[in-house]
Amino acid sequence: MAERTHGNPVTAVLSGVLDQRNKDPKVTPVGPETRLEGRTCLVTGANSGLGKGIAIRLAKRGARVIMACRSGIPEAGQEVRAASGNDAVEMIRVDLSDFDSIQTFCDELRDRKVTLDAAIFNAGVVPATSRTNKHGLDLMFAVNFLAKFVVLDRLLRDGVIPNAVFGHNPRPGNPPRIIFVSSETHRSSIPIDFERFGVPIQYGVADGVKYYGLSKLHLTTYFHELSRRLNPGGGTNPDVCVHALCPGAVNSNMAREAPAWLKPILKPVMTVFFQSPEKASIPVDYLVASDEMGRKTGVYMHMMRIKESSDASKDPGKGALLWTKTEELLRAHGVT
Ligand SMILES: NC(=O)c1ccc[n+]([C@@H]2O[C@H](COP(=O)([O-])OP(=O)(O)OC[C@H]3O[C@@H](n4cnc5c(N)ncnc54)[C@H](OP(=O)(O)O)[C@@H]3O)[C@@H](O)[C@H]2O)c1
User: Fold this and answer.
1) N or C: which end of the chain has fewer CB within 10 A?
2) What is the pTM of this model?
3) CA distances from 62 to 39, 180, 319 (A)
4) Per-residue model confidence as pLDDT tens digits over 227-268
5) Could you give the count of Cα atoms lying within 13 Å of 184 in the half-sphere of its Cβ?
6) Are strands 40-44 and 300-302 parallel, antiparallel or unpaired?
7) What residue ranges do the domains of the chain occupy?
8) Whole-angstrom Cα distance, residue 177 to residue 136?
């Protein structure tokens, strides 16, 4: 089947609507009898949209939930507590476009001796046009990809996420889980430009979705490389379970910067055809709570279907190069 294009806002929306009608086999959602009491789950971007849906779902299972957010403090936490009936929900402030804020956030988790059983990297952004963060890097590239690399570099080295390779504190038989919220747009992305890696690109409204897809290709390539590095023994009996997914089209605040001409069309389309954050969080819940996903690593899901991600994202050569280039870029910005 030909790959669908997500190159502009209209085709991306149409693609999201068509995904709702796909009849391929799905995994079975995890039943309410599976409890997560005693487990600690981190969710980034948990004050809005999908992230809030994930936080409520995991809190309902009894998990202690840490909502890592830059806004909505404390009201989003109160909402999650009220909706789940679980008081073990807290919020920590972090701006994922700002490497200093990320370091402060990671210091806090380390200093409080937090151990994460699951870390869900959900926060993402689609700016209307290109802009840079305070470090002079493209904002979408920084939030959708680089921030995950920087946070995980710290959480894995500090042993906040138990692991043998970087933290030397493995947890045999009870692997933690790392989950990335990616997007099917990674499939129709332009290739990663390793020659001009990290050099900010100028784009306007028409190309925002194209570069969003590229940021998700960076993320999906990193997801596979991290899974390989954390599990040098291969995919069975993983030390850390690393998974990724596209949640499908979600009626969230993601289109907040959509062009003014598109908003009057987008709002009703999203309300009628897109999934609620509550429904869209079910595959994330499956990756966090199912026994099956605690015995595997490197699984990519599109909504409730297990699929292969794109060939480019799985290429170990590209994954290793991405890792090296990212380390170089971060060193050049004084981050690692
Ligand atoms: N909506 C869809 O159709 C769709 C489809 C495929 C994939 N996704 C992915 O799903 C994830 C969640 O998006 P959503 O649809 O739920 O959109 P959303 O409602 O806009 O939520 C995005 C979240 O990311 C946070 N965020 C953005 N920049 C941040 C920063 N610099 N620091 C900290 N947090 C930041 C936002 O915080 P603020 O509220 O403070 O801005 C918000 O909590 C994203 O990764 C997105 O790419 C969405």
Assistant:
1) N
2) 0.95
3) 8, 22, 36
4) 999 999 988 889 999 999 999 999 999 989 888 888 899 889
5) 23
6) unpaired
7) 35-332
8) 32
Q: Give the mean model confidence (pLDDT) for residues 278-284.
A: 98
- Structure letter (DSSP) for residue 138: B
DSSP label at residue 275: B
Contact 51, 45 (CB under 8 A): yes
* Mean pLDDT, residues 165-193: 96
Structure tokens at 89: 């929900």
Nearest to 42 by CA among 106, 101, 103, 87: 106
Ligand 1 pocket residue status of 19, Cβ below 6 Å? no
**With a 6 A CB cut-off, is 250 part of the ligand 1 pocket?**
yes
List, as one string, the DSSP characters of 157-212.
Answer: HTTSS--STTTS---TTS--EEEEE--GGGTTPPPP-STTTT------GGGHHHHH
Place of tokens 């598109």: 262
Does residue 329 register a pLDDT over 60?
yes
Angle at 318 between CA 168 and CA 192, to 5 degrees: 120
Take atom 46 of ligand 1 and give the residue whose Cα is closest.
124
The CA 254 to ligand 1 mean position distance, Å, reads 6
AA identity, residue 286: Y
Cα–ligand 1 centroid distance for 125 (angstroms): 5
